[in-house]
């Protein structure tokens, strides 16, 4: 029996390794998620080729996204299929699903106006399960299906996996949610465009505010995920802070593993630095479930109350939504906040979003920034196709690099590095038991690309 | 130092709640049940469904207690159903096949949870009066951590009493030692197995239910916690409840100290200790050659 037990122990040890590996890319659902039902075109085929891009896109956006207008009678060519490749299931499936929401809103709005180049737009959705291997597999499938325009993407690592194939097969990628700075710098590709503000832009915006609005903060502690981007982000912020505000310095840091189930020791290590509520600030580079878990375990220890400013880099309202009334007062430093922009495209986007059914478990007052990113990535493609008068890769790429188009954040265009030169938005949220969802958000302001992309 | 130790003990007792059911099931049924993490996750979601889905604002303590007890019992019902429908077939399989079978079941449970509750992180507020901290020996300790420690101690004592001071415990230990002889002696071993499995899953559900104010509920918490629970069960000695408690607290404290004094070891120390213990005592810290310890 003793031998039997030893065998079991060895078996279990092996299984732990297998399970640990499996957990990183576990598929818990179907490999392909169907897009929401699509609206057909209204038949008013006003959108032909050419025309003034920005004006027409504003007009497109002002159209309501409603399936009830569907008829499809105005389409003159074969449907145009655009690939949507993102993580749709598993731990970060909410990111891909929210981005798909946005992409679908844009598709519905354009189809209601006759599509693009007279063709109905369809999304071909695939789930890459946050796996570079799956990403490569699906990119190959897109190529074999004749799909040369792809959007989506949450993980920068998956974009790096897809990049060689995109270059080899002459496919274009407009990423919605990736934020790693390397994609448009050291790993730049002429076939990859990025819509979301990257970590560098968000860091510059945070450091800019640390020297202006938050100039009373003297010590910045940091908490980030324990991975390369987490360390790089914190190190870069420290350098930017030293330049922007020489009176401030960095203090304690905690790097939390993605797999951590117990965050209290990390919280204690930050508290051990005795942060001063009058002059300390916290750089918070956690997101997803890990950020919520960290905040839950920090709540009884009043960690966030020890800081005058908590700057959430890359996090968003899913954090405040999950925490409800327990949520800390946090400044989000990200790309989009729905209250921050007053223009017809943003209004049409918000109006279309309001018609969608509630997203499971997510209590939002307006579209999430991941929805904005999916929406804007699709707007970039559609405006580029329209300007190019073609769906060919080279023509669309040339148009992407040159056009200025209307987005929910106003007129935007891609920087020569291929990242969207759009503002970083800073807004505040905090738990409020009197608010409808237990939290409220307010106070949006923008830090423009003239600051965040300044060379 | 004291703060790290307190934090580690609190974390350890939460892990003990999960590991105790896992080791109990192994002790009697001789099956390494990877799906145990799924029952843990279900306990959390049941509490969420009961108390928080419509109102993330506040949570009265009595409602939370009711939800935790109800959630744990509901998981027990799920456990009984899966034991009868699935595990009775898995028992007959080889060790590797049963291990893979239970891992497959874990993925199924995660998938079902994803369909029902989605992938967005959810949370349950702290029950009133328990979302704060007190100062003990100059160290700030969360009151909820103290509750977890208390519940862990009650569960440990209760399990000991159940297994060593009741007729049910006597039968369970007998089945654990020699199922064949028990069947010859007229013991309803199937009933004992179902009961023990139900108890094990109730403990997993209790762990998940109690963890809800401290974690972000997503379907993959099932996998995150089961890996640590397995390490604890292996180090404590397969089938040993007292060993699981020692290992859980030891691991919790070691991880906490690592984070405080040498962060690169955080998360890794757990598995380094596991391999060291396996090298020195492959049978685990506390072991009984046969049956439960």
In short:
The complex is a heterodimer of chains A (455) and B (293). Chain A is an alpha/beta fold.
Number of strands of chain B: 2
Helical residues, percent of chain A: 25-40%
**Which segments of chain B are poorly predicted (pLDDT under 50) over 5 or more consecutive residues?**
none
How many whole angstroms does the radius of gyration of chain B measure?
19 Å
Q: What would the principal axes of the Cα set say about the shape of chain B?
A: globular
Helical residue percent of chain B? over 70%
Beta-strand share of residues of chain B: under 5%
Radius of gyration of chain A: 23 Å
Strand order of the largest sheet of chain B: 1-2
Greatest chain-chain contact: A-B, 69 and 80 residues
Structural class of chain B: mainly alpha
Give the CATH level 1 class of the largest domain in chain A: Alpha Beta
> Got a strand count of chain A?
14
Enter the CATH topology name of the largest domain in chain A. Rossmann fold
H and E order of chain A: HHEHEHEHEEHEHEHEHEHEHHHEEEEH
* Spatial gap, N to C terminus of chain A: 69 Å
Counting structural domains of chain A, the number is 2
Main-sheet strand order of chain A equals 7-6-8-9-10-13-14
Residues in β-strands, percent of chain A = 15-25%
Which CATH-level-2 architecture of the largest domain in chain A? 3-Layer(aba) Sandwich
- What global shape of chain A is seen? globular
